[in-house]
Amino acid sequence: MAPKTLLVHIPAGPAPNIGNIFLMPVGILALADLLSRNGYPARVLHLGVERLSRPDFDLESYLEQEKIDVLCADLHWHYQSRAVMNTIKEIKGKAGDIITVLGGFTASFFAEEIMGQHPEVDFVIKGDGEVPLLDLLGQISSGGEDLSDIPNLVWRKDGKVISNSHTYKVSQEVIDSLTYSNFDLLEHAKIYTRLVNPLQNYLEQPCQQLNCYSCEEECSGIFYYNCGRGCPTRCSFCGGSIDAQRIINNRTEPIFISHRRVISELKALGRYNISGWYTCFDPYPQGDYYPELFRRIRQEGIRLNCWFECWGLPTRKFIDDFAATFGPESEAILSVESGSERVRAKNKGFQFTNDELLEALAYQHSKGLRKHIYFAVGLPFEGEEELKETFDLINRLKITYGEDIDIEVSMISYEPGSPIFLDNEKYGVTPKGNSFEDFCDCGTLEKIIGYRTELFSEEEIIEKTRLIRSAVICPRVEEMEMDFRRFADFDYCPVCPYLDECSMGQEKEYFPFM
Ligand code: SF4
Ligand code: SF4
């Protein structure tokens, strides 16, 4: 009989926020759909959503009740590592005959180490998983024992860890046949697609009034979906850059999903009352793929808001088509990383100057688009001077765009397979550890980001992030003609003359942490 499979997403912690990796990898629904279409019954379950919507939810009882034979868990982002391993161990301890499979970037990168040290994991599939998972289920259903022909599979034979050839990567034909929007396969899909909606910001602030976890109101959801896989460049901090793509996915260049297929995914969203699309796949920022796709979306009469994470600066043609295609809440989000051009050039794959950035923002503004921009702190080669440049650029943007720009500041984290991981010395980075076990501890108070740079310790990076965030949040920083040093030296809120009338200062939003 065909084995019954559950694909499960295990967030890093109980609360629904981004730091807890509440978002599922986009491919998990596509895999479940592929299995179902090939005769292997499959469902997707988000453990965080289940626990929020049913506080007494018990995964083991669910597996028993649904008679699940194979449990596939994504271990994509390294912050999930401890939670995933604990859950798998617990399940395997109670239901020993269930077959456990891991996939995703982190599991792929550490496949041999995981298989060597965690007997509760039966298999790891490295990189793209479509054909390897189908082959594995085929062998399980036929009782076959020789798994050596299944590409990308890491398994055990007579107690020894075997790594099969890493030869499978998704082809144009396969990627154009996948369906990422079959939400019928996801338990509590309606709640999940609402919780991850950036417009309603449920991740930060769950909708109390509507009691989102159990409500039946018709608020709309969001679809996280990328039009392809891979990256042709190298950002110092990114575990999905060109080198990691080669190691993890055996991929040397990006692959795009055909326009026809993307259109059909977006058209399907109406069935689920999903009105927003969030996407982060932009390997050729100067290319024609998106302007042409946007033209076809308009032609088809598809109405959506879109949040598009740009990997470089968007062209004017891109912005023209983007603004003409999507709804008023849409944003083309820019990752600037640093106000210092020198630091940006040393860390970011796609390069641009501050003047080019300001010109791109002005053009977005002229088209009536909201502006949204990301900075990072803790970059290699960044010192006090460069942080001051970031502080100054943020203030300039606040003065120019006021309420019409969202500015976010985050710490970078030390990702497996990133350029700084692969070459600590080149980037002047000292990690707290490079093994899978080390990454299992990431996110704890002792190891929030997992590295120090030549110029800043981990504690200093956290402190500098807090300061730069304060510059974003403080409503009066430019009015007080505050410069970075004064702001930093005074740790300003406690001595600020406006403290009595400032809700930011009083509510301690001045002290955000992660
Ligand atoms: S952050 Fe940089 S390296 Fe990573 S996917 Fe984006 S462009 Fe590529
Ligand atoms: S109390 Fe803090 S956040 Fe508010 S105006 Fe003063 S420095 Fe800015």
Bound small molecules, which ones? iron/sulfur cluster
Q: How many structural domains can be distinguished in the coordinates?
A: 2
| Count of distinct strands | 17
Write down the overall geometry: globular
Low-pLDDT ranges: 509-514
- Under CATH, the topology of the largest domain is which? TIM Barrel
* Sheet with most strands: strand arrangement: 2-1-3-4-5-6-7
- The average pLDDT value, as a whole number, equals 90
* CATH homologous superfamily heading of the largest domain: Aldolase class I
Oligomer status: single chain
Count of discrete alpha- or pi-helical segments spanning 4 or more residues: 22
What proportion strand? 15-25%
Main structural class: alpha/beta
Portion of residues in helices? 25-40%
Quote the distance from N terminus to C terminus. Answer: 48 Å
Largest sheet: 7 strands, mixed
- Assigned CATH class of the largest domain: Alpha Beta
CATH architecture heading of the largest domain: Alpha-Beta Barrel
| Rounded radius of gyration (Å) | 23 Å
